[in-house]
Amino acid sequence: HDHPIPRLGGLAIFVGFMISVLLFAEIDRPLRGILLGSCLIVAVGVVDDSHPLGAGVKFILQIVAALIAVWHGVIIQTIANPFPFSGTPYWDFGVMAVPITVIWIVAITNAVNLIDGLDGLACGVSTISSMTLLVIALVVSEGNVAILMAALAGACIGFLPYNLNPAKIFMGDTGSLFLGGAVCGLAFALDVPLVLILVGIIYILETLSDILQVGYFKLTHGKRIFRMAPLHHHLELGGWSEVKLFCVFSGVTLLACVLAFLGVMGR
């Protein structure tokens, strides 16, 4: 950039969210775990944005944040069987429930961090995702979770005008890590953790592109699948403008969110 741009904008998202939650929401044990884990994630982001931390340190602290949520009862114990004719309606993870939950939370948290490489992208996609979870919460009469989703969506909407191209302020790791952890944790609170496969389709595609790029690079001693990873950089180098990328990725997210909503309503 040709001039300095503030990069702790994620604090504005976090503080706006927390003030709303503390004023209007009822904090039960699982929600307390989500909020405490989010506080740790934000602290990690603030330090990393000011004095970059090593990847290993960040990864360990993200696991600790996920374990805080798990200890408070945020856990994937069972999921609906994706094979309807197998005779078993649900899969029970048993002793694997804790590690699977931790891996899922850490993966989604980092996936949002990956897409924060383009003006407005992480904030825009997270706005659509949180609005979808808000509507689901209202439809299934989870009023308290709806308050949290409304707080998250409102914080994103308030920040978005300052983050759209050309960005006046960046959310930094503070914001992207917080959004990932919050969206994932609140999907758990709604008891629909796997809906993130659709609601967070852009998160997942961007992460997969990064994994494929690194893996292929190592296996082929320097060859690449994409011009650059994650995916939005590949498309950017192919001539896509930041505005076009924002619009297309937001549109894909919106379509996937509609499908997610229809899927949840059809359960």
Characterise the protein shown here.
This protein is mainly alpha-helical and 267 residues long. The protein starts with 9 loop residues before the first helix and ends with a helix. A two-stranded antiparallel sheet has the order 1-2. It is globular and about 45 Å long. The model has no long low-confidence stretch (mean pLDDT 88). It has helices at 10-24, 29-50, 55-71, 97-115, 121-139, 143-163, 172-189, 196-199, 201-219, 231-237, 242-265; strands spanning 78-80, 90-92.
List unreliable stretches of 5+ residues: none
Instruction: Give the rounded overall mean pLDDT.
Output: 88
The secondary-structure class comes to: mainly alpha
Oligomeric state of shown chains: single chain
Q: Give, in spatial order, the strands making up the sheet with the most strands.
A: 1-2
Number of strands: 2
Shape: globular
Biggest pleated-sheet summary: 2 strands, antiparallel
Terminal Cα span: 48 Å
Helix content percent band: 55-70%
Which strand-content bin applies to the residues?
Answer: under 5%
